[in-house]
Write a structure and sequence with these properties.
Helices cover 42% and strands 16% of the residues. With 192 residues, the protein is an alpha/beta fold. The chain has one domain: Rossmann fold (3-Layer(aba) Sandwich). It is globular.
């Protein structure tokens, strides 16, 4: 798990610093959708989930677990925006109970041209550069292609969250399987 702070601190990370930063708010949480059916390989169409790669049952469970961890840690969530593709919308709904569909977050190659894809990546970065209202975190559920183009992060696992501060500065990362560790660390810190 990567915590908040310098590049070295992000790699070695401390769970309590990550939780504290998330609880304070003012961050943008860029979440790659939960586990999807990687065996589906076709041109995706927005008009129907039947023409898309969708969440698996494990992905649905993963999204619920992310949301459960966030709620248990009392991390304040403001806007929750997601790409119009079903796997991102479903991830947002299962984790946070709500979603604002935002076409700027759609996966590259689905709609428009390469220039449109580039503009969407720039729009994603712009969303992360503006911190949300104090006391809340904004969630953007999107795809690895957008994250790579917008932030230069080529390897982002399904269900992984990148935590950005003002000016889109990466302050931490949390993989889907690390929410339990964060919760355990927070409980230990509050008991001590």
């Amino acid at each position: 798990m990567a915590g908040c702070g310098s590049d070295e601190e992000q790699r070695s990370g401390t769970p309590d610093r990550t939780v504290s930063a998330l609880q304070k708010g003012g961050l943008t949480l860029v979440l790659r959708h939960a586990i999807s059916d990687a065996n589906v390989n076709r041109q995706e169409l927005l008009r129907s989930c039947a023409f898309q790669r969708n969440l698996t049952e494990a992905g649905r469970d993963q999204a619920r677990a992310i949301g459960s961890g966030i709620r248990a840690l009392r991390i304040p969530i403001g806007d929750v925006r997601a790409s119009p593709l079903c796997r991102t919308r479903d991830t947002a709904r299962l984790a946070f109970g709500r979603v604002i569909v935002d076409r700027k977050l759609v996966s590259p190659g689905v709609i428009g041209t390469e220039a449109d894809d580039k503009r969407r990546a720039e729009a994603l970065r712009a969303l992360a550069e503006r911190p949300p209202a104090d006391g809340e975190n904004t969630v953007l559920v999107t795809h690895t292609g957008n994250i790579g183009t917008a932030f230069g992060e080529e390897t982002v696992r399904e269900g992984e969250m990148l935590i950005y501060g003002p000016r889109a500065r990466l302050v931490g990362r949390v993989r889907a399987d690390e929410w339990t560790e964060l919760l355990s660390s927070a409980k230990t810190a509050s008991a001590g």
